[in-house]
Design goal:
The protein has 513 residues and is of the alpha/beta class. It contains 15 helices and 18 strands.
């Protein structure tokens, strides 16, 4: 068995003699006709300084068509041969300009040799060949360790190429102990001995009990935090509604104390549909209001689908979307119902103020969105008019609020499921501490256009306090408790079987037998 294993990969332009060089060295044969090869491999044993070196030789394709799969050959390289054809000076130029950059990108510290192939052609007349001087000058330019000339046809210099390649990698190996470490060689060549874990009874039971004893208390804490949240949902849409206003009465059966956040909750609205989200005006959100490619690149497919199937498309041509701000189909179906809340008292009605969501509800990445630069005394509406741009069709005049309007940025967040809730604002009760129990009236100014077209939508007005975990979500606590309980039960069952039947010191070792 070889004491040392190394991997050599050969690169260069197509038809520059790479495959012929490998054939001449490994088989002593020469193929006069060119054949494109992809990842052809050879393995040879060499003796160097009294040590046996197993050299894995990898051939690569130099054509551009193979540029995507070529990086697969760069893994665990020990030495590189960069070849050029002396009959074609362009191949030396490519070795310097193209191949060196690619090789050093993937293998910055691997030894590299510059190899001149087909030197037997220098004897032919009327052939403009690359001389040895030009090849030697290119060595320092590309950072190669050696320059070697050879001819696969005559065999001259072929053995010298691979002899210097092996010496180059062995010389580097001597510079650092880790390169000469047998463990490091086995690790880099993926030849470490395999091992199979054999769990003992005590290890399995300990892990199960520790997992259960950790998960159950965590689940209780999460569930308690969720249950501390007070929440009241008021459904106000479950059918096609053609009007513009609606009033809904509801009762709070207990006081809601603390900071109260208002959410709108929608069922059966699939905001995450890829054909919908592909029209988010990404460039316009960054201030480039005349940039419409984000909205029109899929126009023939996306706009027609949204218009005919989802019923939210208004413009089916690229020309119409070029002049819209924002372009695409995220603004027209935007949720923009306006809520007003009143408490019914003995003396009449008391209005409860609801402040609309501000920048504190936004993710830091959303704070990067901005309107285009405006000159002094200019607003977005006048700038759009000057550039011949129009407001996109939607629930309000877009230029009056622009791309920093928090409700718009909250709306274009892609909800993962068809049922979701998003923040609307914060309740500012007169008492300051919250909302007392009693009867209330919710007035809704209806501006959500899809609700006027589809019967399957369900919309709810939600009043909710917050805990350190956020809103009400018992699922996380329940799943922790369930998993922890199952782990405890599994540990008890395994312990009972082990004690009752005495399977042995390692009951799982021979289970497959």
């Amino acid at each position: 068995m070889a004491e040392i294993r190394k991997k050599l990969v050969i690169f260069g332009d197509g038809a520059c003699g790479k495959t012929s060089l490998l054939h001449s060295f490994t088989k002593g044969t020469f193929f006069p006709e060119h054949e494109s090869t992809i990842f052809e491999n050879y393995v040879v044993d060499m003796t160097m300084d009294g040590k046996t070196v197993q050299l894995a030789l990898w051939d690569t394709a130099g054509q551009e068509d193979c540029s995507r799969i070529r990086p697969l050959s760069y893994m665990d390289i020990d030495v590189i041969l960069l070849c050029f054809d002396v009959r074609r000076p362009i191949t030396l130029e490519n070795a310097s300009m193209k191949w060196t950059g690619e090789v050093r990108y993937y293998c910055p510290n691997v030894p590299m040799l510059l190899v001149a192939n087909k030197t037997d052609n220098r004897n032919e007349q009327k052939v403009n060949t690359v001389g040895a001087v030009a090849g030697g000058e290119a060595v320092s330019k590309i950072g190669a360790s050696h320059y070697v000339e050879c001819s696969a046809k005559t065999g001259e210099g072929v053995a010298e190429v691979f002899d210097k390649a092996v010496r180059a990698v062995l010389h580097k190996q001597k510079k650092g102990k880790k390169w000469s470490s047998p463990f490091w060689q086995k690790l880099t060549q993926q030849r470490l001995e395999g091992s199979t874990p054999e769990p003992s009874f005590f290890l399995v039971v300990t892990v199960l009990f520790l997992t259960g004893l950790t998960f159950i208390p965590l689940g209780v804490v999460f569930l308690k935090a969720s249950n501390s949240v007070s929440e009241r949902k008021v459904p106000y849409h479950n059918e096609v509604f053609k009007g513009s206003y609606s009033n809904h009465s509801f009762e709070l059966k207990e006081d809601i104390r603390g900071r109260i956040v208002v959410f709108y909750e929608i069922d059966n609205f699939f905001q995450s549909h890829r054909l919908y989200m592909q029209t988010i005006p990404g460039q316009q959100l960054l201030g480039n209001i005349e940039h419409y490619e984000d909205c029109t690149i899929y126009a023939s497919r996306v706009f027609v689908f949204l218009e005919k199937v989802l019923g939210i498309g208004s413009n089916a041509t690229i020309i119409q979307h070029k002049s819209k701000v924002p372009c695409g189909h995220t603004f027209r179906p935007m949720f923009h119902d306006r809520f007003s809340l009143k408490r019914i008292t003995a003396g009449g009605e008391e209005e409860i103020k609801i402040e609309e969501a501000d920048a504190s509800f936004l993710h830091p990445s959303e704070l990067l969105f901005h309107d285009p630069p405006l000159s002094e005394g200019e607003d977005l509406c006048s700038l759009m008019k000057k550039k011949g741009l129009q407001n996109g069709e939607g629930p309000y005049k877009f230029c009056e609020r622009g791309f920093t309007y928090p409700p718009y940025l909250i709306w274009i967040r892609s909800a993962a499921f068809g049922s979701f809730r998003k923040p609307y604002g914060v309740v500012k009760p007169p008492e300051g501490w919250g909302l007392p129990m009693g009867n209330y009236t919710l007035h809704v100014d209806r501006n959500f256009l899809p609700a006027k077209s589809f019967t399957h939508l369900r919309i709810r007005f939600v009043l909710s306090t917050l805990s350190w975990m956020g809103g009400k979500n018992p699922f996380l606590g329940i799943i922790y408790i369930v998993v922890g309980t199952l782990c405890i039960l599994a540990g008890l069952v395994i312990s009972f079987v082990y004690v009752k039947y005495g399977i042995g010191r390692d009951p799982f070792r021979n289970f497959s037998d």
